[in-house]
Amino acid sequence: MKHRNSDVPDYSSLLRLDGATYAVLGAGQGIGRQVALALAGQGARVVCVDKEASRLTGVLTELGDAAVGRVADITREDDVIGLVDFLGSHFGTLTGVVDIVGMAVPCDIADMTQDVWDQQFDVSLRHVMLVLRHAMPLMKGVENASFGFVSSVAAIRGSAHNSAYGAAKAALESLITSAAVEYGPLGIRVNAVSPGIIWTPRFAEILGDEGRMANEDNTPLGRIGEPWEIAGGLLFLASRLASLVTGQVLVIDGGVNAKFPYPKLNFIRR
């Protein structure tokens, strides 16, 4: 949609996704579930993808006729190809992909094995290349086509026990910028969000109440993020409100990354 400089667009309509079709990868729980709900709430058809069929039941019930489900492990190229074939045969074209898949496996560098290193790059990076490569043909020439991925603040700040995950996410951000340059002439945007700690069921299990309070104390906004807040960023990047945004990583972390990194050092005397 083009506007003359003097035009004032209907901003609420630019958020709408009526007639669009999106695949949400990792839609069965947490952030992925919220992304599926957000996209459908703005009128999109959503293909909810997860490697566990049991995870899809709840979100598909919530979305009703606005969604269909597909079981696939997108870290496997054959599954990605099968998913793209399914999307092409059912919908013909695809407006966008929102990819939530990725999970940190804590490991000290001194204890790092090749298997752990490879697993982190497979789960956080390799499948992104597969999705970018195989889904792109369905998106060429589609209005407001876009890819949205999930990075991490671990990509830009050192994190003990998290070296492989952080390195994979940093590489993901580089891949996103290159894809944005290559796919821009095709009218396809490529972006990501970079969350801090988000209170998903997994983080709740890992941190517990004590860990949550400690991280809230270290966050300028004074609280841990919720999955819907990451979904909101991805919804913006998918919408026409972000029609000029590509090759970008939107940090959503409550301000942690913006502040002086030593919480106990409040001032320096000279």
UniProtKB/TrEMBL annotation:
CDD domains recorded: SDR_c
GO MF assignments: oxidoreductase activity, acting on the CH-OH group of donors, NAD or NADP as acceptor
One Gene Ontology term from the biological process aspect of the record: fatty acid elongation
Gene3D superfamilies: NAD(P)-binding Rossmann-like Domain (3.40.50.720)
Entry annotated with the keyword Oxidoreductase: yes
UniProt KW keywords: Oxidoreductase
Family annotation (Pfam families): adh_short_C2
Family, similarity comment: Belongs to the short-chain dehydrogenases/reductases (SDR) family.
Protein name: Putative oxidoreductase
